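During the reporting period the student researcher (J.K.) took over the structure-prediction task from the postdoctoral fellow and processed the backlog of single-chain submissions. One of the processed entries is reproduced below for the supervisory committee.
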Amino acid sequence: MQYTRISGLAAAIILFLLIAVSCALADVDAGTNGNITSAAEEPVSTEIPDNLPAAGYEGYAFTVMTYSPGTYYIEEQTGDIVNDAIYTRNMRVEERFAVEIGVNTQPGILELDKAAASSVLSGEDAYDIIIPHQIQSGPGFINQHIITDWNDIPYIDTEKPWWNQSINETINILGKQFYIAGSITVPSPFCLFFNKQYVDDFNLDDIYTTVNEGRWTLDYMTGIAHTISSDIDGDGKFTVNDRYGMSFNNDNQTLNFMYGCNQLSVVINEEGYPDINVSNDKMLTIINKVYDLIYNDNTTWYTTYATSSEAIDMFRAGNVFLLGSAVSNAITMRDAEVNFGIIPYPKFEEEQQDYHTHVDAWNGMLCVPVTAGDLERTGIITEAMAAYTYKIVTPAYYEVALTSKYLRDEESVEMLDYIFDGILYDFGYIFDSWKGTTWTLPNLMTQKSTDFSSYFAAREKGILDHYRQLYESVLEYDG
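J.K. obtained the following structure tokens:
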């Protein structure tokens, strides 16, 4: 298939997948399970069956619409582990079910929205699945009635480990599941990088032990960050040349403190309708704690989304202890002289059971256009792709590319379990359409404000009307 030009961020994601791989060669087992064995000959267990029936589709062109094609289609093997794992996954699916997997690549999220709507509303059966931007497309595809309920698609087993369990629970609308996500989208969750030298210089407790013991909380982290900041050049000003306890941007990296505290912006009530979940004491506490982290004692070098690279440069130079980031950004640290580790975002309090995080909206979700002609075929091929991703691609990405090449110690590898296992999907994040309540924390921090009451009062009616329209659209699916 022909590719069109892709967006810069999508290209960066693809680039990561393609070059995050030239490590000690791993051998993809040609057996049924698709195991990957590393150079150390440690097999990854992939014995979970997909329970799919025997089927053949006579060379049918199974087409994925996306703006990130390299995750779903690789034209040829190159010797790179992740690249070749994706190729092998597709080959297994193609051979098993007699299909040909291809992509229709859109140059960006707006173009994808327009192309998907145009195709479906004109009645074309052109695409089997669509991978849109979470926020841009989330409510719009439902309001336009262009996607179908995954519950109506046979052979999709969302309880299998290759599907994210959070999204199954948190974005279900009146029993309908319009989007799913999991291994197939190769998620890159938000995390923190830390400079190990600071642990020795400031005689800190071992960070990994603190995380493992469940003591890595927002208060604990802030206390450390406050002690590290210093006007090291003595000019009476805090600039890029000084030392900071932390740096992160005013976008998703700020928002992720809310998710790290296991705080969703919207929860579904017993009647199945959304309740805004930011007007409570816990959220107010998070707002005040993050404000303290950013604006008291010059603890944080706070950047915009556009200037995030500035924080990375400062971390690489050794001027920042903790850096808000995402797992895939380990690639940018590969040649950094600073000795770094990777850890999850902090919990709200020690009593919180797990560490949590989320993935950027660019990671996408899976949906099925209502014009897809054979839902049984769609279910079988999609489930097979997801299962083989879990068995073939994930080990290459996680066990080989990340752990062997970009992370520098075994403890960081252990931290990946906390991070990936803690991925949350929030109803508000996906369906909010940037209306404001989900983005309460980053928006208030950008305004240098803790005045939640005024902020919320100005937005409450608008977001409730927005959700009301969404639910009316869902009810219209049943006529």
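The committee noted the following: Residues 1-45 have pLDDT under 50 and may be disordered.
J.K. will present the remaining backlog at the next meeting.
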